[in-house]
Amino acid sequence: MPRRHLRMTGAADCSLGAALRALRTELDLPGAFPPEVLAEAAEAARAPDLSAHEDATDLPFLTIDPPGSTDLDQAMHLERRRDGRGYRVHYAIADVAAFLRPGGALDAEAHRRVTTLYFPDDRIPLHPPVLSEGAASLLPGETRPAALWRIDLDGDGRAVRADVTRALVRSRAKLDYAGVQQQLDTGAAEEPLALLRDIGRLREEQEVARGGISLNVPEQEIVQQGGSYGLAYRATLPAEGWNAQISLLTGMAAARLMADTGTGILRTLPIAPDGAVARLRRSAHALHVDWPHHVPYAEVVRSLDPTRSNHAAFLQECTTLLRGAGYTAFDDGELPDPAVHAAVADLYTHCTAPLRRLVDRYASELCLAATAGKEPPGWVREALPALPKEMAEGTRRAGTVERACVDLVEAALLEGRVGELFDAYVVDVQERDPAAGTVQLRDPAVVGRIEGGTAPLPLGERLQVRLTRAGPASRTVLFAPA
Description:
Blueprint (H helix, E strand, L loop, with lengths): L5 E2 L8 H11 L8 H12 L7 E2 L5 E4 L9 E7 L5 E9 L10 H9 L3 E2 L4 E2 L4 H7 L7 E12 L4 E17 L1 H10 L7 H17 L8 E7 L2 E7 L3 H24 L2 E5 L5 H13 L10 H6 L6 H10 L7 E5 L27 H15 L5 H6 L3 H28 L6 E9 L7 E5 L5 E4 L11 E10 L4 E6 L1
Helix pairs in contact: 1-13, 2-4, 6-7, 7-11
């Protein structure tokens, strides 16, 4: 089964640090930036190309990110339309292209790295920190170049107009999810922040109407515990979902612009085969999740409560339908097949995280050209054919890092506890060997493999398990039925 997403929040300085450093070496990950890349980045930070940027510093933008984040890709300003017929979303995306020379050392290094890689105690950035955490980041109180989206919504939250231009913007506030949620819950939030809930809920309703789905899967999170570290489960906040809806809205608007001009790169996901859906129905039955035959999958998912163990287990099973996502480029006026992202249930592209993901810089350039009625820059067109393969490799590497970090932290946390009993529940059972599968411990927040029993595992049921292996060196945790 797919592993839980590990939310990287920074672990305390302990023995884990040495193991993580060894992991970086083992996985052959990018190291320090070459001197010529750092020199080019420093020069670009001093003198970015701002010749095509309008002045939008009058808009009071804000950012919403995890605490401690400094690589800030997006800033937003939400308002009611002056005609009283809906809302306007201003969404500023860091303009990385204002700092990069196509074909230069900095550009080549970004193509080698593809994505930012996150570890519990550090990150390996896509761009040098002088840009990604400095001159190109939408930090509060700083004037920054951006690709500024203006998306008009009607009173029901449907997009009725979208364009993007280059602009200088200034964020007024750096907020985090917990703080935003508290302001919204207590009524302390004023516009434009208060509109995040209104627009977010309308966009969620639009998602329901088009058949899309967002999985609210609890995350494993590395947390500081005194001078050491541990793992905890963390359910996402409603404000995170509403914030994600703004990003989804922008990605859909960008994909539509690309489709209209016949040149672009889409994030695609094929519809799950009937066999996968049938397997999921069997899992729902085993987990005592009510799924009437006439009810669509998306509607069932939206009814789940991730704090209930059987529902959380089913949400984990649902992630199997999201396998097969990729990137598809086109430049002949014809949309690829498939063109739609099945979970979004619409055309969609990645364009909102250019500080951390290579493809987003190209998506922004394609949309800027489309809005201006111009042909895309030659350097963008030349890179399109190779981008899907580059992104696939970069995404695979990021997934490997995430899985290895989870495995390492779990194994380190449980080292020395072999033979102990733990309360768990079964979240996955192998079809070929129903006596083997995956269990989720209640405390500590560990998800691990279970095998060695003789009876089929009870999917979704509580089970006492015995730890039989826990080795940080091999990043292995294994349980057996008690």
